[in-house]
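Exercise 7.
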Amino acid sequence: MSADELTVEATGETVGEAKWKALRELERRAPALDPTAVRFQVVSEGDRGLLGVGYEPARVLASVPGDAVVSEPAAAAHDESVPAARLRALLEQVTFTLGIRCRIDVVEDEESLTATCSGGDPGLLIGKHGQTIDAVQTLAIAILAGGEGPRKDVVVDAEGYRERRRRTLEALALRCAEQALRDGARVELEPMSAAERKLVHERLKDYDGVGTLSEGDEPHRYVVVTPA
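Solution. The predicted structure, written as tokens, is:
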């Protein structure tokens, strides 16, 4: 493409929705553009009106320099399955709504779909104790479960958070097992998601002298480590 700027206009019920639609239109025209280079101009914040009377949509302009646009999409985009495309679209909307400019890579195999977000501020997507990214992953699982084809495990990650969290939980599980054996008493862990509780159970299932169980109600369900 030429070095000229590429600009599109979009509308939505909110400024955020209009921005997201504008970004998707830019990506449709130039699938391999760099989303971090996109600039937005709010033309109108819109007016919700009263009982539908006087409603005006929010309107924005989105532009990107020509040198940030690649005319041909990446080869992977041509081969992306429908579930992978749906997962990517969901994460694009979520990250955009949160104000996170990031790259989204989706890797698919026979058993799973893994989406990794990199760049921007990963802390906004991860949230306190991973609450935000776990909620996004749960939403993605629910949405993709209603699609066609075999169900696959869905993982949403950001800047290696899942691996760091796995190491942290495994180390915590071992410390709690040692404490349960040393004190001869049960040890309660902090509330966790179902996936994280499963990780703790798996890590300690072959640990001699202790057992594990889950107690409490969601979203405050937690693992208990007990002397066997």
